[in-house]
Target: Succinate dehydrogenase
Amino acid sequence: ATTETAGPSSGGVHAPGRAAIAARQLRTDRWWLAPAVTATVLTVFVVYSTWRAFANADYYAAPYVSPYYSPCIATNCVNMKGGADLQIFGPWWGLSPALLVLIFPLGFRLTCYYYRKAYYRGFWAAPPACAVAEPHRKYTGETRFPLILQNVHRYFFYFALVFAVILTYDAALGFRDAAGRWGHMGLGTLVLLVNVALIWVYTLSCHSCRHVVGGRLKNFSKHPVRYRMWSWVGRLTAHHMALAWGSLVMVAVADLYVYLVASGAFTDPKFF
Ligand code: FES
Model:
């Protein structure tokens, strides 16, 4: 049933000129399920990650280092890997060293095209789902402050590449035992390997990556190498949503695993 509800002061979907539909939406499926699951999982992830980022403890169980605390750039994590990777922050830094590095992977995910869609729907209902009217009266997209800052995503992509390299190095160190001898392999080694593999495919499936390798070309015929790379990245990009969720869950699992081993709650099974 449709009725005329638009008035001169109405905004949003009731603005003059919009179809006069009284119902908030006409979908009959469970359209609310996806935004509800999104909001729930992201809330759990944010609460867990905030706790771990501020914990400043149990992030290193030789030879495994939590992805939340790598690289170490403060002197107050000197017990890790035999010392800080880069002592950029001296003894005056008294807070958790995770706070110094998490801004980069966090910024990468926060500005990711997929996560933007997910949390705009899950938390702001803007809109909650396709063909479901949003409750807001005005829509300015991402054209104004602060959302215009989402454009920095392309720069976070380069930082994300650096972090993927660092986490690859950490995963390789998982093949050393606690004394530093190569040839070790435990469940933690596998956990870090799976984590970094997902980080890589998620990072390489980024839409900015696709543009970096194949964008701004007038034709592909003169750039066969870039065309080939663009095709590979495009195949990954098609799965960006799944990779975003998979790597999000796995990075928390990797941190949780290191936490359980470092705190003594779990003993890392060794394969050899
Ligand atoms: Fe999602 Fe770049 S678009 S990481």
About this structure: The chain has nine helices and two strands. The chain has a mean pLDDT of 91.
